[in-house]
Amino acid sequence: MNVTNVTANADAFTCNAYLVEGDRTVLVDPGAMEGVVDVIDGLTDELDAVVLTHQHGDHVAQLDAVLDAFDAPLYAYGEHPRRTTELEDDDQVFIGDEAFDVVYTPGHADDHVSFVSESTLFSGDVVVHDDGAFDYGSFGRTDMPGQSRERLIESIEALLEQMPDGVEHMYAGHGDDFHGDVRDVVETALDRAEKREPKYPDDE
User: Lower Cβ count inside 10 Å, N or C end of the chain?
Assistant: First the structure.
């Protein structure tokens, strides 16, 4: 299974958008980078699916452009006019070469889901390896309207309950990829979130 961050060279703010090549070529979040369609087109001729972790603008601004270019089905938890398959908690989707469990992980966004297989976690924004607040285990911000630190903590706990011990690859919505003991990174993020301290003190 080959994973490429197709927004790695973005000049403007975007999420990490991951093209996963394998038995099923799938895009996890299209992101907000203009020109992402050209980057994807340079790597593959078709997409078997686009799956969304959530629908914040930095994750879906280029969604219509990608769907128009590749005529791919859209998998999403939250309602969307172009959604072809509704994701639910405990569903299973095939990404690349592996079956991934869908874990409902709200708190940062009401429609947030994460995808976890025997080896890999696509965590969206619920947990990231590093960002401007923390390195080695950070969590999605919860200081904006409609967000909840308490729900985020419950989501990280649920993710840990469902995550196999052997997960070694983590692809988050922001920050760097991580390869190693993913459970330890997620547990570190949970510990920090449980302190209830502002993630960005200047903004809260």
Answer: C
Q: Which residue's entry shows tokens 């994973």? A: 3
d(Cα 55, Cα 53) in Å, to the nearest integer?
7
Q: What is the pTM of this model?
A: 0.96
List the domain boundaries for the chain: 2-203
Closest CA to 55 of 26, 77, 25: 77
Amino acid at 198: P
In sequence order, what are the beta bridge partners of 65? none
Nearest of 47, 7, 6 to residue 26 by alpha carbon: 47
Burial class (CB in 10 A: 0-12, 13-18, 19+), 105: buried
Task: Decide: helix, strand or coil at residue 115.
Answer: strand
Amino acid at 111: D
Pairing of strands 85-86, 74-76: parallel
DSSP 8-state code for residue 24: B
What the block records as the tokens of 148 is 């909840």
Non-local (6+) Cβ contacts of 168 within 8 A are: 119, 120, 179, 180, 181, 182
2-203: CATH number: 3.60.15.10
pLDDT digits (tens, 9 = 90+) for 116-168: 999 999 999 999 999 989 999 999 999 899 999 999 999 999 999 999 999 99
In sequence order, what DSSP letters do the residues of 90-114 get, joined into one string? T-EEEEBTEEEEEEE--SS-TT-EE
Asked if residues 44 and 51 have their Cβ atoms less than 8 Å apart, the reply is no
